[in-house]
Amino acid sequence: MKKQLCAAALAGTMLVGPAAQAAWTDSQIPAWLDPNAGAVTVPTGQTAQTTTGSVSGNQIPSWLDPNASAVTTPTAPTTTTTTTQNSSTTNDYYHIPGTGQTPGTPGTVTTNTGDVYPTYWLGFSAEEATYYLQQQDPEIANAEMLYYSQIEELVRNQNKTVLANRETLASIEAVDLDAAIDDMEAAIDGMEQAIAGMQQLANSVSSSLTTVDPTVQNGAATITVGSATVVLLQNNIAQMQTQLAQLESQLEELKNTDYEPYEKQFESIENQLVMAAQATYAGLMTIQQNYIVTVQQSDLTNVTYNEMQTRFQLGQISQQQLDQARLAKTQTDSAIQSLYMTLRNAKEDLSIMLGREPSRSYMLDTIPAVTPDMLALLDLDADMERGKEKSYDIYAAERAVEEAEDLDRDTDGREEQIRAAEYKLESAEDNFEQNFTKLFRAVYEKNRLLSVAYEAFEYQNEVTQTEKLKYDLGTISRNTYIQAQVNQAVAESNVKLAQIDLFSAYMQYQWACEGVLTTTGGI
Known about the structure:
Residues 1-22 form the signal peptide. Residues 174-201, 230-257 form a coiled coil. InterPro entries: TolC-like. With 523 residues, the chain is mainly α. Helices cover 64% and strands 2% of the residues. The chain is elongated and about 100 Å long.
């Protein structure tokens, strides 16, 4: 598609000569396609189409029209004000676990060259996202807003596995062992279903990546972020499977009246589910971002195809070139439908994780930016020690050492069991430290990549301004200028994808400070 768009842009530039001007005049090509027409408007009765992805005839989306007045590009940076459930003007912040601070005010990012840029508020506003998504599903305009700050509360209060585990723990502590065994088995069944649901979500995201062409604009960035989301989900699945095996082992020892292991086990499982749901929300933001950018790119594809039809009628291009433009339009439209279906399926999967009905419709809110002040609070050594103290894996390994040491001294193989338990404890500590360090490094690497993406956006913004001057002078065609606008939208999308990636890494690090650590650390 990239080659097709570039070819179309080149063809548009070639139509600026005198002969081409005569061709435009003789054939009465619509004025909005004429780079020499000046400040023109759509002819009477032909209203400019503002719904992306559906340009036809003489219609053109207002955000692509250089002659439209006071038009805001849909991908323009949004403000730092986010909405709450009860108000459209009140800031709705959340507390990232382990920091005790409230993020929410976008700060600045410093590049390797020392340049300082402001960070954006992540994602699209509710109005902008609704504008695009309701094209596929008109009912989305009436959907409720799901805020990131709601995720943890919903999982802890409504997730079926969490509720089952709490009931199980209550039954254990009530010392009704027979009933507790039944409840434990039910909890195991619930966790198996949760693992299966999370695996289905990972498969859904992986499937969506097969529709993305890495050679097109934004394709490589989408694949990178999407793949990272799949890795995170798979890591959570592996962690929960380990927890499941441990839970099954504890079922055999249910008559042990020491409740502490069960309390810590269920707490760890609950935290894992919260973290998985938060990671899924961020993953959905990535899919939604990819969907919206694809819709924006379809605007250019539609405009290009309409122009190519006119040129074909003038005899300036071949049937094969027109068919190529038609194919690009068909492929883009197909990708939009596929991405929307993936987004819808993934949102339904998240609903189940939140203890909601899958069919319940909702919109995604923005997530806070990670500011330099937040990064400055990271302390590798202190944070790691705190995480190790709260890690369930290390706690379980320490318990194993204690149990081995408590064996009767006459027990055969007692010394070997003690050494084996000690080796496992050392291994658990080493793995935690290594994965924690990888997460620490990942946060700063994602921050560096964000600065690179922002520099690229600043460059593309300057290019677009230059192209606008050329267009005003009549030295390039409207189609070429539109291409520059699309390139700017893609560059800004890369900034938002990088911000989501940074936030995901930061969120994982903060959970690691609470002892909840994915098996492979940073992504």
